[in-house]
Design a protein that fits this description.
The protein contains two helices and four strands. By secondary structure, the protein is α+β, with helices and mostly antiparallel strands. The chain has one domain: 2-Layer Sandwich (Alpha-Beta Plaits). The strands form two sheets. It has a two-stranded antiparallel ribbon. Strands 2-3 form a two-stranded antiparallel ribbon. The chain is globular, with a radius of gyration of 12 Å. It binds iron/sulfur cluster (2 copies).
Length: 72
């Protein structure tokens, strides 16, 4: 699952450019900081490659594996 923490996002779109699929696109609305954050277009397109997480300079996007084994 793709998690975007818009509080930290500065709208640089690096995550969108590095996403090999079509899971992300630029939001049409600004976030609380006035930036166009990414939004998830299609969760099913995400391969959990974590390129977005790796390249985001602000740790604003990350991938959470299925919560089955998570401890809450
Ligand atoms: S984990 Fe990979 S496929 Fe999924 S949104 Fe991030 S870059 Fe795109
Ligand atoms: S790379 Fe990070 S800061 Fe840049 S748009 Fe994506 S989530 Fe926001």
């Amino acid at each position: 699952m793709i998690i975007i923490d818009e509080r930290y996002c500065k709208g640089c779109s690096i995550c969108i450019h590095f996403c090999p699929g079509k899971a992300l696109e630029v939001s049409k609305e600004v976030n609380s900081r006035g930036f166009y954050a990414p939004k998830v277009v299609d969760q099913a397109e995400c391969t959990s490659c974590k390129q977005c997480e790796l390249y985001c300079p602000d740790f604003a996007i990350f991938i959470v594996e299925d919560a089955e084994s998570a401890d809450g």
